[in-house]
Amino acid sequence: MNKTVGSTLLVSGTMIGAGMLAMPLTSAGIGFGFTLVLLLGLWALLTFTALLFVELYQTADSDAGIGTLAEQYFGKFGRVVATAVLIIFLYALIAAYISGGGSLLNSLLSEGLGNSVGIILFTLIFGAFIVIGTHSVDRINRVLFFVMLAAFVVVLGLMLPEIKMDNLLAMPIDSALIISASPVFFTAFGFHGSIPSLNKYLDGNVKALRISILLGSAITLGAYILWQLSTHGLLTQNEFLQILKEDATLNGLVKATLAITGSSVIASAVKLFSTLALVTSFLGVGLGLLECIEDLLKRSFNISAGRISLGLLTFIPPLAFALFYPEGFILALGYAGQMFAFYAVVLPVSLVWKARNLHPNLPYRVWGGNVTLLIVLILGVVITSIPFAIRAGYLPFVVG
């Protein structure tokens, strides 16, 4: 039971982070009602696909990674594709966190230093903990995570009493924004990369893993609804959009909060929570990416790289993106959502489709037959294509 509780908190803790900070930025023009529909729909979709991995683990060892699952059903090609998509996904997340963290850190520095200074300092300071090692990350992450939870409670306590019903009833500025926002919201429900670790921790206990996923994702959904309720209810839609057009970063969210509420206390609480959520997400994803690169070099190229070399491989590509696209927080999260759509929807559906043909009598089977799998697969492909449609001009940008 203790392991199940711990796994539930890990599922929730993995999701609650920087992704939820982008929600007000991407949903400012949508309205709370449609945002709620989007939250519920994507929660149901990603909880369903997470449970598909639970079904798959009945056919594999408890310590098997997702790359191993892919190789089990699709050979070496499956492992290569799954690993490549995971690395690209993590790079996109790190780029988003560096962009967002740089904008927040720059707002704390003297004027004139420039956003690039904030981006570089954010990467150097918090990237150092990752390069030093897992123990270093674990110690700082524990402290920051509990402070972040306390800050979240304070933010809700300050914002919820100030919400206005007229703000919550606002309709979308452009209905197509609901589609454009999907990849960013999609990423905020991402914890699927941690399922192999959870399954190993639970010694392959399928029932405990299923309970952890259902409860952990439900806790996250509740937190997201409260966050969206407070931001949409507090911030006037048109004014919020205008401020975000001028500064489409996390610092823009803080500025919007201050301008519309006139409360420096609320704005400071939002900034503290935003900063902590970014840092905790950056530490977890950065460590995962560094270890993924280390494993790839060892297993595929027989190269044993040092921590500094691994750190450079981990942070230089996303740092370059953040420097060339300093306003790229939403852009990077959108492309992360694109990669994640393949990793968390297309891949598990494909694996389960094949697994059910080979193992038709598994004890646990996720609800729905082949028709349900096909519908989910189509949704995954559609979400994967959304960033391309935005860049091509067929869909509006979520900000600006």
Automatic annotation (TrEMBL):
It comes from the Bacteria. The keyword Cell membrane applies. GO terms for molecular function: aromatic amino acid transmembrane transporter activity. It holds the Pfam family Trp_Tyr_perm. One of its GO terms (cellular component) is plasma membrane. PROSITE patterns: AROMATIC_AA_PERMEASE_1. The chain crosses the membrane at residues 38-57, 77-100, 112-131, 143-163, 175-196, 208-227, 272-293, 305-324, 330-353, 365-390. GO terms for biological process: amino acid transmembrane transport. It is found in: Cell inner membrane. It is a multi-pass membrane protein. Keywords: Amino-acid transport, Cell inner membrane, Cell membrane, Membrane, Transmembrane, Transmembrane helix, Transport. The keyword Cell cycle does not apply. Involved in transporting aromatic amino acids across the cytoplasmic membrane. Belongs to the amino acid/polyamine transporter 2 family. Mtr/TnaB/TyrP permease subfamily. This is Aromatic amino acid permease. It comes from Rodentibacter genomosp. 1. The lineage of its organism: Bacteria, Pseudomonadati, Pseudomonadota, Gammaproteobacteria, Pasteurellales.
